[in-house]
Design goal:
With 95 residues, the chain is α+β, with helices and mostly antiparallel strands. Helices cover 45% and strands 31% of the residues. It has one domain (2-90). The protein has a 4-stranded mixed β-sheet.
Length: 95
Amino acid sequence: MVTLDATVECDEEKYFIKINVEQGSITIPLSDDNPNAVKSAFNRLLQRVRIGEFTIKLDKVGEDLFSMVANEYITQLNREIQEVHRQMQEYGLVK
């Protein structure tokens, strides 16, 4: 199973999770209310699930609030990814 690296980044006082995938990076906003960006990120993650099973690992979990939130977010996201991958396998949707 592949492990994808993720970091918590800050750009102009907006925090987000940056996940490094083979096709570039996927960003999930943490401090900005942007449902379209979240949908786009999840769609890209689903495309990556079709290629093969993976987990996401946060590079550094700091003591700040955004790092702790990102760590929990990624923990939940990994659970969902495993379940989606299993279901996609059942329906023959995995490459």
